[in-house]
Amino acid sequence: IGLKNKTYGNLFGEYLYGTGISGYSVGGFYTVIPDVSIVARLDNFDPDRSKSNDQIDRMIYGLSYDWGKNVKLAVDIQDKTISGSTEKVLFAHTMVKY
Description:
This protein has 98 residues and is an all-beta fold. 0% of the residues lie in helices and 72% in strands. It is elongated, with a radius of gyration of 16 Å. The two termini are 27 Å apart.
């Protein structure tokens, strides 16, 4: 499910439930000034509901910049927690349309 607004950004949510697995994800982009957006996303995933302590939680937050018509740059921090252990990683991304 998603909501897209050309002026302010977009929001999305998804839910997964299958044989032995479950999870959800919510997030979006919010335009703070033209061409610059705040990015945020929260994921919760249980790959095997029959096992305890195998849940994966991930939080992503950062900024994206539309650099021209076909190039987007982003910097974000991703916190990933598995079985109570958390790691934090800084990412730089580039997306080019061709």
